[in-house]
Amino acid sequence: MGTQPRVIVVGGGLAGLAASVRVAEAGTPVDLFSVVPVKRSHSVCAQGGINACNKVARQQGYSEWQHMDETLYGGDFLNHQPPVYEMAHWAPKVIDLLDRMGVPFNRTREGERDLRLFGGSLFKRTHFSGASTGQQLLYALDEQTRRYEAEGKVTKYEFWEFLRPLINEDGDCKGIIAQDVRTMEIRAFPADAVVLATGGNGLMFGKSTMSVICTGAAAARAYRHGAWLGNPEFIQVHPTAIPGEDKCRLMSESARGEGGRVWVPRKKGDTRHPLEIPEEERLYFLEEKYPAYGNLVPRDIATREIFWKCQEGYGIGGGRMVYLDVSHLPTETKNKLKAILELYEKFTGDDPTEVPMKIFPSVHYTMGGLWTTYQEEWRDADPACDPSDRKTIVEDGKICGMKYGDPKNMVTNIPGLYAFGEVNYQYHGGTRLGANALLSCIFDGLYCGLSVANKAKADDSSKAADLPQSLIDKNIQEEKDLLAGLEANNGTNNPYEIHRVLGEEMTDSCTVIREEGRMLEARAKVAEIKEQYKSIKLSDTGSWTNQNLLFARALGDMIIYSDAVLETAIVRKESRGSHYRPDFPERNDEQFLKTTIAKYNPQSNTPDISFEDVPQPMVEPRARTYGSVETKKDDKKEAAAAK
Amino acid sequence: MIAQNKPEKYKVKIKRQDGPSQPAYYQTFEVPYRPGQNIISVLQYVAANPTTTDGKETSSPVWDSGCLEEVCGACSMVINGLVRQSCSTLVDEMLPEGNTITIEPMTKFPVVRDLFVDRQRMFENLKKVKGWVPIDGTHDLGEGPQESQADQEFRYALSRCMTCGCCLEACPQFEKDNEFIGPQAIAQAVYFNMHETGKHLKNERLDALMGKGGLNDCGNAQNCVRVCPKGVPLTEAIARLGRQITVHAVKEFFMGSKG
Ligand SMILES: Cc1cc2nc3c(=O)[nH]c(=O)nc-3n(C[C@H](O)[C@H](O)[C@H](O)COP(=O)(O)OP(=O)(O)OC[C@H]3O[C@@H](n4cnc5c(N)ncnc54)[C@H](O)[C@@H]3O)c2cc1C
Ligand code: SF4
Ligand code: SF4
Ligand code: FES
């Protein structure tokens, strides 16, 4: 093993690949683990684009500062400001770099990178590559990783599953235990720092827009071994997805960004074909209520409005779907959306360039995740920072960012264990603005990659090479025992069936609307599921590529994570971002302008929950209205009452 | 298109193999028909109910999948004799061929288990053609080169290749154990040769594709382009690379060295 430091990156999506490239570039060898070939990671699914202020946006009055402000406003001020400041200000550099890597960003006639409009902003600031931006970004980083692989600086372990962090007697993370999902071999991999970049947890909700690998199991495993979760209750439900047998397929926000309109028939239960419903008999409910943002209000708002309209009986044919219409757009625009429109046609048989699409909200993104921290740094505001319309910047012109290269950046509560990308709870707060996730993933990898390399090189604690063999053996044995336990089970419960029930329960109780009574019911149900899980029945006891066994193990992790989501959703007695409580419909800053922290309690097998303040050093929290017409009316009423 | 008169149930015949060096065998399962079903949901049903038509309880079949929306490239299979993505193949399209759908693994790659194959060779080929832009590092060096809309559009079409392997499965020249690099890697070489910075490695890419196993082994049967789920312009790429190699060979001949 030698004494040269090594870094392990678990996850080969955008966050993991960006981290691998950055760490390898800093001269530290990387072992890259992924349960699927990295090129097939979930990031490949992203369609719409990636946000950054650029020179064109800037000339229209947009700035990095404003990008930061939109992100904080969108997140209902639950996000920490220094990392968001840094992300927004690095965004243009991130795009430049991707451009240099050869990402085929869409171009204007002059050959410049084109921009599109996305939710939560009145400015065009979203860079895109057709309607498959994630695919192109992932491939660019995959290519650079392959280049380092060819040079021997990155070693890939594809089809290897992360099972747990390897934690030494001092409580530091010094490697991982992983399993080859083909040979089923379980092995220890010591390292001086470990990055988890394992993505979101959509599968916990049964059907979602995510890939089948997005179980959240990796995060749950870190949690079970002492890593804290931050804000696990914050789950983004995307307003527009195509409900399907096996999954809900996303209809990207870019469809609305390019002019797509959401509507329902004005008459409840109207069964006419959409093309037979004249313009004046259509209800463009988002445009009516939010005239400024219209169809481009942030996701939590659009989702709830669609959900409510269906509840009121305005859904198509009285059901749970609304129209998303792009049929009126010019051909050139439709061409820009080709990839997603084809997807719709392929999976439904209808041509959306002719007929409005039928869509409904679906679980989509995990704002919460592993709790992380960072090293803040006060410094002079750079010229790109334009606080003129947001007066709350601290008096002496100083801003609060992160200290570049500090080993504390995006580290979990376990020293040496980092969380990047969607599994990291930072950046998005109460809800994520569309096209900010890709940015946060790549930013984490590139910016905080150096922090990880620095941590690995620092000799502040015992090295991975000093890990006692007995500790390694014990960790491996426990994982083997866990599998043996599952295999020896000869109960009657089918793991796929348990998963279906868990997903339905979670979707029903803990997504768009969170009623306390319903969540308490779900809590009881999950407790029941936990019991059933103890006596499951596997259809496969083979010792080669046993997917049945691997799924059953991940199911156990999903159940534990579900607990944390439910419990934190129950204790957050307010509405904020994606978290909507009918019993507490208002945001309550006094009590809940706080991060929820869930710590796993091995005795009770449930989470212990606490809260932590979110400091607001630069931008003061304000109400989140997006110019809603009703809110304005209410303001007037209040003003009148005050007179 | 929802076809009329669908049966209540139909059969799926799955080719199984317990491991790389194990014998292959077929098993048939019965699946209830649901409108809008795709092949993945059929496999999911079988996995949850792994009992064959003759009442034998068996192991759940193993397969590879990820996105379920035809963009990750994981789920290529041979369905009723045609190679395609199982996530975007609807049962309705496949049933007219009789009341049985046959699902088999691709034949040009080693089987890991059942329908799950090992496509590592494709990723290795990307190393051979130096499938990357040789940037100087991740430092802040400003924007990349400008690009025309037309070039962007062609590069975009090539960049959609998801390394699924369908084209290799269909190509008569690509064999499990020969050296032919196949249309996918050729198209990627063209992709990187088009980029202003990617061009810097053009000669090395062309060298890699000139010898045995390179472009010359392509018989121009055009099967590849017909099966590509992403519509990657493979034959156009092959033609472009042919021209680049010709120019490259002439240059080499006159300059006496790799120029
Ligand atoms: C359909 C869709 C469209 C989207 N469109 C956009 C968009 O337009 N713009 C935007 O900004 N965001 C978008 N998003 C969100 C964005 O795609 C994701 O947040 C982002 O790609 C996550 O990247 P990641 O690197 O964190 O994780 P992922 O890409 O999910 O990668 C996770 C990696 O971890 C590995 N892994 C997981 N568990 C384990 C384990 N136990 N052991 C080993 N490896 C493991 C996986 O193999 C994978 O390599 C979209 C999301 C969806 C679902
Ligand atoms: S070129 Fe097409 S068929 Fe071949 S690997 Fe790429 S996407 Fe698949
Ligand atoms: S043109 Fe024919 S021989 Fe050449 S790569 Fe395509 S299928 Fe193979
Ligand atoms: S599962 Fe990704 S292409 Fe089919």
Describe this structure in a few short sentences.
The complex is a heterodimer of chains A (643) and B (259). Chain A is of the alpha+beta class. In chain A, helix 1 (14-25) packs parallel to helix 5 (133-150), helix 6 packs across helix 16 and helix 14 (495-509) packs parallel to helix 16 (547-571).
How is this fold's topology laid out?
The complex is a heterodimer of chains A (643) and B (259).
Chain A (H helix, E strand, L loop, with lengths): L6 E4 L3 H12 L4 E5 L15 E2 L3 H5 L4 H11 L6 H20 L14 E3 L6 E4 L5 H18 L3 E5 L1 E8 L5 E8 L5 E5 L2 E4 L20 H8 L4 E2 L4 E8 L6 E2 L3 H4 L3 E5 L16 E2 L1 H5 L9 H13 L10 E4 L5 H6 L1 H11 L8 E10 L2 E2 L5 E5 L17 E5 L14 E3 L17 H21 L11 H20 L6 H15 L6 H18 L13 H25 L17 H4 L1 E8 L4 E8 L15 H14 L1
Parallel strand pairs in A: 1-2, 1-10, 2-6, 10-21
Antiparallel strand pairs in A: 3-5, 4-5, 7-8, 8-9, 11-18, 11-22, 12-13, 12-17, 14-15, 14-16, 16-17, 19-20, 22-23
Chain B lengths: L8 E9 L6 E9 L6 H10 L27 E4 L2 E4 L5 H4 L5 E5 L6 E3 L2 E2 L2 H9 L20 H11 L6 H5 L11 H13 L7 H9 L12 H5 L6 H22 L4
Parallel strand pairs in B: 1-5
Antiparallel strand pairs in B: 1-2, 3-4, 3-5, 6-7
Helix pairs in contact in B: 4-6, 6-7, 6-9, 7-9
Keywords (chain B): 2Fe-2S, 3Fe-4S, 4Fe-4S, Iron, Iron-sulfur, Metal-binding, Oxidoreductase, Tricarboxylic acid cycle
Organism (chain B): Mucisphaera calidilacus
Enzyme class (chain B): oxidoreductase
